[in-house]
Amino acid sequence: MGIIVQKFGGTSVGTVDRIQNVANRVIEEKNRGNDVVVVVSAMGKTTDQLVGMAKEITPSPDKREMDMLLTTGEQVTISLLAMALNSKGHPSVSFTGWQAGIKTEPVHGNARILDIDTGAIKSELDRGKIVIVAGFQGMTEDGSITTLGRGGSDTTAVALAAALKADKCDIYTDVTGVFTSDPRYIKNARKLYSVSYDEMLELANLGAGVLHPRAVEFAKNYGLPLEVRSSLEKEAGTLIEEEVKMEQNLVVRGVAFEDDITRVTILGLPNSLTGLSTIFSALAKNHINVDIIIQSMTEAQTTNLSFSIKNEDLTETVKVLEKHREQLNYDRIEWESGLAKVSIVGSGMISNPGVAAEMFEVLSANEIQVKMVSTSEIKVSAVIENSKMIDAVDALHNSFKLSVSAVKA
Ligand code: ASP
Ligand code: MG
């Protein structure tokens, strides 16, 4: 007998019927003899609706009040699920993030978990109860309610599993696992039986969308096995763990993509020791996430610097750069929106040369212009036009033999 943490996402708890279904899945796990801790998201699109209401009042709602508002979503689900379990004869108790002992840094909207005091959860488990915890929320040292960033319930689940030394963390969702690409857009995408933490980190960061990247980071740090699986179907999902067998010797295991990217270029930036640090610390202070960075030495005195951000951060980025204009002394800023990033990911790349070459051949054969490139040991990303994104993913997915039809039984 061990401890299992189960997490159910918004769609899985989207209606009262679905909550009853979740209760049954929880009971099955409990009946296997395990202690069960359940983490849930807000029902369906609740969080989006709450954000919408706030935006009807003001375009830039107070961050503290926003957290106060958004954390109500998860509280609806925990109480309903506890009622469902209790009425099915399985004693359970619901906890908010703070009742569950989740302490975060004092950042509204995107706080990191600092520590979890598992005392309350453990004593309820010892009484034989099923413990249900609201995802996505915590509390600061001085008692302010915080949220962990959109999609943060995954992180709650993994962090709790690590703190409780759980045997496993199952992430139940509306897909049956992690796919070679997003099956909503790529018809031939197929489910992977396993991926490594590093591959999943790249896939999560690159917009595969199934898991919150910080959840994967946490799981990797604690060597905690994760499984992504369906809340409606019983089939096995995708296991995320350290060592993964090469499936059909695939060098590339997935093609991820993400749109709404803007490339910002600073032209004529004087070469100095502090230019880059000034720019990127100013952006970081304003919580602007910068992705690909390219610096080119054009002339002896000045350099051009390009970096990519999300479209939604453009106004703020320009504001920050303009604020530092005198200090940085650059010529001008340009930007191009409507871009997308397409990435191939696979640990097999480390020992197989020619993967990037094949990617660029495929893109050029499809007349797709590459605007920025970045690589890691297990990933190659190319920034291209939004309008070519799906074509590019499709072509890469086929070329790297990821399609259903490409797999020999
Ligand atoms: N309800 C939150 C969101 O929609 C957290 C989560 O579902 O993980 O982002
Ligand atoms: Mg999610």
TrEMBL record:
It catalyses: L-aspartate + ATP = 4-phospho-L-aspartate + ADP. The keyword Amino-acid biosynthesis applies. GO terms for molecular function: aspartate kinase activity; ATP binding. Keywords: Amino-acid biosynthesis, ATP-binding, Diaminopimelate biosynthesis, Kinase, Lysine biosynthesis, Nucleotide-binding, Repeat, Transferase. Signal peptide: none annotated. GO terms for cellular component: cytosol. ATP binds at K7, F8, G9, G10, T173, D174, R184. CDD domains: AAK_AKii-LysC-BS, ACT_AK-LysC-DapG-like_2, ACT_AKii-LysC-BS-like_1. GO terms for biological process: diaminopimelate biosynthetic process; homoserine biosynthetic process; lysine biosynthetic process via diaminopimelate; threonine biosynthetic process. Pfam families: AA_kinase, ACT_9. Belongs to the aspartokinase family. Catalyzes the phosphorylation of the beta-carboxyl group of aspartic acid with ATP to yield 4-phospho-L-aspartate, which is involved in the branched biosynthetic pathway leading to the biosynthesis of amino acids threonine, isoleucine and methionine. This is Aspartokinase.
